Structure prediction request, 777 residues.
Amino acid sequence: MLFNSLDFAIFLPIVFFVYWAVLNRKLTLQNLFLLTASYVFYGWWDYRFLSLIVLSTLVDFFVGRQLSVATNRAARRFLLIFSLSFNLGLLGFFKYYNFFVDSWIEAWRNLGVEMHASTLSIILPVGISFYTFQTLSYSIDVYRKKIEPTSNIIEFAAFVSFFPQLVAGPIERASHLLPQFSKQREFSSKFAMSGIYLIIWGLFKKVVIADNCAFFVDQIFSNPSAFDSLELFLGAVLFAFQIYGDFSGYSDIAIGVARLFGFSLMVNFSFPYFSRNIAEFWRRWHISLSTWFRDYLYIPLGGSKVGKYTVVRNVLIVFLISGFWHGANWTFIFWGFLHGLFFLPLLLTSTNRNYLSHTRLKSNHILKIVFTFVMVTLAWIFFRADSIAIAFQYITDVFSFNGMSLSCFSKTSKALLFSIIITVSIIVLLGYEFLAVQRDQKEVKLDRFNAVFIILLIVFMGVFKNPSDFIYFQF
Amino acid sequence: MRDFLKKMNFVSISALVLAMMISSFSLWSLRKSAFYKPSFLVNTINETSFDYIILGASTGLTTLNTKTIDSVLGTEGLNLSMDDTGLSSQYLMLQHFLNQGKTTKYCILAPSANAYDHSTNDVSDNDYRFLPFISETYVYDYYKAFSSKQSKVLKYSRWLPMLGVSYYNAELFYPSMITVIKNKKRNRFDDKGNYTYPNLKNSRVVINEPSNLNVSFKNKYVAKIKDLCASNNIELICYFSPVASKSISVNTSLYSIINHSDLIKDEQLFYDDIHVNSNGRQLCSLKFSEVFAKRINKIKNE
Prediction:
């Protein structure tokens, strides 16, 4: 079920009403109901893959229970490895099997050896990268004795499959979300209203920003050679806004929906395009994933408390794997590698921790923000292109300064209209975000008048006829 | 909860009321304009009696130039064709035309040849252009006859105009803003409803050995159009416009036919496989005038 669908618009109020009006203060029933609603939400897409979520839930619940009673270190380690193998095996099979087979064949072909192996026609279950990481964090935290394993299977299953964030995050930690299922939830009008405002803001980002940008992005990236340098550059800029609107829009809606049920999810995006360097960008972009990798990969590798050479290695490993997490394609790996390269100079000059605490934006930050945005945008080209070679050609064409027309944005009345809508909507987006940054807010906070204004923008500027799927569903 | 519902009500009702007001104004502005054909017919065509009208899709729109035909025959014609529409839309356009109290002696039906046999299961791509007239029963009934998402959006816009205006915002809302400023602006057609594709320097079309297409008029809307014409004393003529590399054969005694599907053999007169360019249109219109004149005289003599 898509957040921007009619199905969801009917589903959400029903679940909300039953949850608060019928089951209020009945914690177990509320959790059971949320679990059922989550399975319906997921099964709406493809009920067959519910079995994977159920299996993943049972395995990690079982591992957690066994970890709580196992005293033997070897047994505990075995249980952790079992959980890791199961979850990563699931992810590896469904997401990466064909990639590994193809890459293996290609590697041998490059050495002059023809190999034949069959790939499988595997459907990628929606959200598998998200919920496997979420359940993994539970097993690892229980293993590390950071959290107590739960003995309530309903709470745990509801935590794994919690529908607002099931298919595209934020990737929640058990230590943050799981205890919320055990606590009696009181309805807070203010909290729920903040959720509604966030849903409206998320819809604006998705339906207005992302889906309108898709109009040009799809054209330009499907045949880059037909466009001149300026058009290609703007195509990349629009993709930067498309993916931001798409993914952060989803996160905002997820967080907002969770608030309607009394749950607090972690902030996943914190105005990343106002970052003043790449390190700050990664503290603001997909925060739930970057902190996941920090806690479960970077720190176990030694983090920054090792020699400089090892730190560099660790950083590159994290960025490479982070890229690979996004998809089974070399383009994603290269995208991650590129961000690693962008990050290294900051690491080596010890400036990667600049802007850790909130600092108001000043006029002398503009150049740094623009420079960071351009670097991020160039990296997005690898993320969006069909192959690394195409991405390199794309960037070469951008910097060849071959033609500086804007004809693709104005050649038809429809193109001109989309250009105007996109320009206006990006100005609105950045305007609201700028104010939020200056006020040290973690999210754009609308009041009721602004909410009405944003709804009107959605109604009259949104894409409803040919909406796009959420990009991150494919991850 | 009460406080929450109060705030929710404020946001949703305010947004709904404002969106409805803007949408209603948007449709009103389009209704009073000349931007799309249905409004153009109502607001800028003062004549009530025509010798012929052309109903069709892009083929009818770009093949027959009523100005050329009228200059040759001394007739009064009007082109009511709309691109990306099917026979159902042409039926609706005929109803719309008659509903304005206008009459015509002949109705030249010029959809794409395939449309005659393809059953119509959904509204056409450009049927939203009738939305400003949703209060008319025949328009509402037309949308109601289908069950797709688009038709439901259009149908329910009778009570919730924001549905249609929002869904088709690029096609309805923004053009309506233009019509607020330029009320007489037409969306790519002249004052008689004609449009032409340009003559390109290099033809995109290659004419090969023609394949045969047999038309048997299975689409129920042809019969509906014929019945509506008959009940209003209108003579229906089915016109087949030139198609590159295709020969259309028509075997029927039920309909009066002008088949010019193989009229043009010169690639330079085509814009694409199914549309002629400006020079092609001139040739087609002249040829049509010849045949049409004979039909008129024949009927007069009878």
User: Anything to note?
Assistant: Chain B has a mean pLDDT of 91. The first strand of chain B starts at residue 49 and ends at 56. Strands of chain B lie at 49-56, 77-79, 103-110, 211-215, 235-240, 246-250, 256-259, 270-272, 275-276. Chain B touches chain A through 22 residues (CB under 8 Å).
